[in-house]
Design brief:
By secondary structure, the chain is an alpha+beta fold. The protein is built from 6 helices and 22 strands. The chain folds into 3 domains: about 55 residues, no CATH class; about 80 residues, no CATH class; about 180 residues, no CATH class. Strand 2 and strand 3 form a beta hairpin. The protein binds zinc ion.
Length: about 325
């Protein structure tokens, strides 16, 4: 549970005037029926008996809105922070009408998606209510290409791609002459991801070059980048999906606990802990399907294999024409 979680206690107004004996203090300045109970949540019972012997249920409202509202707020801003010249796709949710401190709510008309920097500035009052409403209305016109950077830098990663493991394997997937999933290193030895997402239609899809990603907004249904940079998920209108996620793993037990289903046998000796797992899955209808559990290419299914210290993990043949359409 994060420190931003807030419990809401729905109480009768009469309690404000003459509070019953409760294991916490009811603010005496309150006129709303909602109270933030802060640190006292641990000692809070789920159901509180009322003076009239009926009961009040305590509900928890998390500051993170439900997924449908998050999607609506992302779409509204064209999947990037709408503050001037920003466009960062790692978004958080700013409540401004009314502000969260005045009333906890998830009403999308009083909320806007912003990057962490601009959300912090908005919390401090940098943007007026009118300005935020303008940004909500104008943002879609500004939406062009969505750009961002993968900021988790590591010298070694264990990649889980389509249900199979790749370690010290610079090219994970090669299609014809195209490196579709591959790592480079920067001058300091940190791994940089390069990725071309095959397109069934010849329209450009997500592309990652040395950790910088660009997403053409055509046919995009949703681009969800977690504000702290750990996950990215892109959904296309035809059901295609790309997702990418980092996870730090402290030891062998933690790896087994998290990924036991995907580990076919003993963990190879070359794998040292702690390590960072990068999970990549991509689904392109009719071309390939690297889902969370397995890899499907044509009629072939591959799962729970380990590719260690190979130059190329998986190589798929493709004609020049296929390559031209799949990787525009
Ligand atoms: Zn921003």
């Amino acid at each position: 549970m994060s420190p931003t979680d807030v419990f809401h206690l729905i109480i009768p107004r009469s309690w404000v005037r003459s509070p019953p004996a409760l294991p916490y203090k009811i603010p005496d300045n309150g006129v709303s029926d909602f109270y933030s109970l802060g640190d006292q949540r641990a000692s809070l019972p789920k159901v509180v008996p009322r003076l009239d012997q009926s009961q009040v249920v305590i509900r928890m409202l998390n500051r993170t809105p439900p997924s449908a509202i998050r999607r609506q707020l992302r779409r509204e801003v064209g999947f990037g922070c709408p503050a001037r010249d920003c466009g960062i796709p790692y978004l958080t949710w700013h409540h401004f009408d009314p502000p969260w401190r005045d009333r906890q709510h998830h009403e999308p008309e009083g909320m806007i998606a912003l990057c962490l920097l601009h959300a912090g500035q908005a919390d401090a009052g940098a943007f007026t209510k009118e300005r935020l409403q303008e940004l909500k209305r104008k943002a879609p016109e500004n939406a062009e290409e969505i750009r961002g950077e993968l900021t988790w830098m590591r010298r070694e990663v264990l990649a889980l791609v389509g249900g199979n493991w790749y370690f010290d394997t610079p090219t994970i997937l090669q299609v014809g002459n195209t490196s579709a999933i591959a790592f480079d290193r920067d001058a300091d030895g940190y791994l940089l991801l390069n990725l071309r997402f095959p397109s069934p239609t010849g329209m450009p899809r997500v592309r990652i070059v040395e950790n910088f990603f660009t997403v053409n907004p055509d046919q995009v249904d949703d681009v969800a980048c977690a504000a702290r940079g750990r996950t990215i998920q892109i959904d296309y209108a035809n059901g295609d999906r790309f997702s990418h996620q980092y996870r730090d793993i402290r030891d062998q037990n933690a790896l087994l606990e998290r990924y036991g289903l995907y580990i076919g046998g003993p963990i190879p000796d070359q794998i040292r802990f702690p390590l960072t797992v990068v999970e990549v899955s991509e689904r392109t209808q009719g071309i390939l399907d690297f889902d969370a559990h397995q890899t499907w290419i044509g009629g072939m299914r591959m799962t729970r294999s380990w590719s260690i210290s190979n130059h190329v993990g998986v190589m798929i043949g493709a004609t020049r024409e296929q390559e031209r359409v799949w990787f525009p």
